[in-house]
Amino acid sequence: MASHWVKLELDVKNFDAARFAGYVERCRDAGIRLTTLAELGDTPRDRHALYELNKDCSADIPDRGEFYTFEEYLEHRIEVPSYDPRGVVIALDDSVWCGLAATSNHRASGFVFNEMTGVKAPYRGRGISIAMKTFGIGFAGLCGVDKIRTFHHPANTAAIEMNRRLGYVDAEQD
Ligand SMILES: CC(C)(COP(=O)(O)OP(=O)(O)OC[C@H]1O[C@@H](n2cnc3c(N)ncnc32)[C@H](O)[C@@H]1OP(=O)(O)O)[C@@H](O)C(=O)NCCC(=O)NCCS
Questions:
Q1: Which residue owns the Cα nearest ligand 1 atom 48?
Q2: Ligand 1 surroundings by CB, under 6 angstroms
Q3: For the whole prediction, is pTM greater than 0.85?
Q4: Which atom of ligand 1 lies nearest, measured to the CA of 23?
Q5: In what order do the strands lie in the sheet with 96-106?
Q6: What is the pLDDT of residues 69-108, one digit of tens each?
Q7: How far is residue 142 from each of residues 7, 100, 136, 138, measured CA to CA in Å?
Q8: Taking the domain 6-170, which CATH number applies?
Q9: Element (H, E) at 170
């Protein structure tokens, strides 16, 4: 486990939506559809596809260790009060689930939390993570908060830089 996590926070009031709108457009132009699990129906089949995608992408998180079984994933990530399918952005290339940006609802504590952002390896480096997070930025407002929090292993340069690019800054968190 990391000795110290990189804790990041975005104040959505400062989010420069115009700056990142082009990423969403470029995804669409490339045939990548952005949607949410809620829009897809959040069916058992959707949840299984989400699990497989999350498992695949998590293999590249430093020190992640063995991933959950599907039953454990349901218990820890889905069947919890903070789960909200409106906060789970999916990138689809036809029938291929190529990216996810999953954010959970912690409005009682004043923030939403980026649980996992992942893009399948062959799709990386095309701005898909920025597009997904831009597409999903309204989730914080749906939850009635303006802070998005996350934390990363210090060796996860790609994820840390992705969030800094979006305007996340270092922040002390409880
Ligand atoms: C982190 C991750 C989601 C980035 O997805 P992506 O779609 O390839 O990222 P993008 O193409 O949108 O890049 C966005 C920005 O992130 C940063 N970035 C992305 N990959 C990077 C890398 N390998 N090294 C350094 N910075 C990187 C850059 O700042 C980049 O902007 P730029 O291209 O304009 O310089 C992807 O690498 C991934 O799935 N990693 C494994 C899962 C993971 O670690 N998730 C985070 C833990 S929740």
A1: 116
A2: 57, 60-61, 116-119, 124-130, 152, 156-159, 161-162, 165
A3: yes
A4: 12
A5: 32-36, 88-93, 96-106, 111-119, 147-152, 6-11, 169-170
A6: 999 999 999 999 999 999 999 999 999 999 999 999 999 9
A7: 23, 19, 10, 6
A8: 3.40.630.30
A9: strand 169-170
